[in-house]
Amino acid sequence: MSGGGKLKASVESYEKEMTVALGDMISIPAISPESGGEGEWDRAEFLESLLKENGITSIERCDAPDRAAKKGRRPNVIATIGSGGKALWVISHMDTVPAGDRGLWKTDPFKPVVKGGKIYGRGSEDNGQSLIASIFAARAALESGEVASVKLAIVADEELGSAKGITYVASRNKFSKGDEFLVPDAGSRTGDEIEIAEKHSLWARVRTKGAQTHASTPNTGINAKVASSRFLVFVRDYLYSRYGRRDDLFQPVPYSTFEPTKQQANVDNVNTIPGTDEFYIDCRILPSYSLPAILADIRGIAEVFSRQTGATITVEAFRKSIAAKPTSRDSVISVKVAEAVRKVRGIEPRFVGIGGGTCANIVRARGFQAAVWSTEDGMAHQPNEYSIIRNMVGDAGVMAAMFAA
Ligand SMILES: [Zn+2]
Predict the structure, then answer these.
(1) Interacting residues of 18 by C-beta distance below 8 A, sequence separation 6+
(2) Which of 1, 11, 15, 389 has the fewest other C-beta atoms within 10 Å?
(3) Are residues 153 and 118 in the same domain?
(4) pLDDT 10s digits, 191-217
(5) Which residues in 73-144 belong to E strands, given as ranges?
(6) Interior CA angle at 160 toward 322 and 364, to 5°?
(7) 357 C-alpha to ligand 1 centroid (Å)
(8) Which residue out of 40, 66, 95, 395 is catalytically annotated?
(9) Which residue range(s) make up the domain with 106?
(10) Is 158 noted as a catalytic residue in this protein?
């Protein structure tokens, strides 16, 4: 067998162990304190022993302090295989979002169920599938005896912005000039998309203050709901037409989006005119636009509507992320991922940009080249989240080919 064929065969032979490992991981919740969990401590301990069981013994911790979390730490695990030259980092995250509405789950989100070639549970696809794939790919490369310098970064806090995850790791100077990054945390169903660019994202919070009154005497108050609704409809249409540029790198949505989403509850009864209103706009903006300029524009419109309606409409950036410079298609990492996908999968990948945000943006902002790639069914954050076991094993084969350079 060729080197590549041998690697693929050993990854295939791990399928059962990989399924068990993913299941075991799912049964240890890793939800951030801000979302009502205790953090990732227990899951990190489990993953450290899983790494060791698989022959990966060079393990370092880079835990971020967090008083709200178990042991006062948000664990980040860095495992090294191979040495010499620039490192290839694989960043996967161990934290998950909460289960969400339990009534929508057909099984217990924290008790893995294997059925029909899938494994069900919270965090199975996001990001457990790739995390487990990276560990077994490292084992295959180690066992083959030909291994490049690879670092697996298994990080915390991705779901809420990564301050105590990959951003913390980066701040401890763990990366060296010329290191390259694979972030297997987004992808298409066939594994044919390599993401090299992300949009800016802005979650704008819009608060409207009017004057509450009895619904039978609207003349004595200012209906915040009406003022807010007028603003909402206008600002959405305005943003879509004013910032309507297209960039076909971004798929499936090649333009910026501006969508009103969460609505805060207001009055409890039908016969009161609400004096306040609060909603959010989720904006995903092409990197060629300026996010601060768009925010200023939204605020300018809010002022106009405040004058027109007599209410006070204020807009804040509840959360924002500036898109870093995209990774080049010709970068070492882009070429490496594309070659491995071609060789192991026999498909021709294409380069894309996406509207979601991943850890890749954080390392790109520090001047590194990063590609986002995996094979997934888009189950992140959904009820009845699952991972297709074949995707996990197939992706491990592609990663092993990259590791065995
Ligand atoms: Zn994720």
Answers:
(1) 132, 133, 136, 389, 392, 393, 396
(2) 1
(3) yes
(4) 999 999 999 999 999 999 999 999 999
(5) 73-74, 77-81, 88-93, 113-115, 118-120
(6) 35
(7) 9
(8) 95
(9) 3-198+324-403
(10) yes
Two tokens at 243? 């910032």
- Cα(194) to centroid(ligand 1), Å: 16
Residues in the chain: 405
Q: What share of the chain is helix, strand, coil (3-state, %, to 5)?
A: 35, 25, 40
Q: Which of 129, 137, 128, 130 is nearest to 12 (CA)?
A: 137
CA torsion 31-33-38-42 (nearest 10°) is 50
Residue 87 predicted with pLDDT over 70? yes
User: Please, what is the Cα angle at 359 between 357 and 363, to 5 degrees?
Assistant: 120
Please tell me whether the peptide bond between 127 and the residue prior to it is cis, using omega within 30 degrees of 0.
yes
The active-site residue out of 66, 158, 185, 277 is 158
pLDDT single digits (tens) 101-141: 999 999 999 999 999 999 999 999 999 999 999 999 999 99
What SS3 state is found at 224? Answer: helix
> What does pTM read for this prediction?
0.88
Please check whether residue 79 is in contact with residue 138, taking contact to mean a CB–CB distance below 8 angstroms: yes
347-356: average pLDDT: 94
CA 247 to chain centre: 22
Residue that is last in its domain, among 299, 321, 343: 321
Is there a single domain that holds both residue 54 and residue 97? yes
Distance 184 CA to ligand 1 centre (A): 9
Q: Point out the domain boundary residue: 266, 301, 321.
A: 321
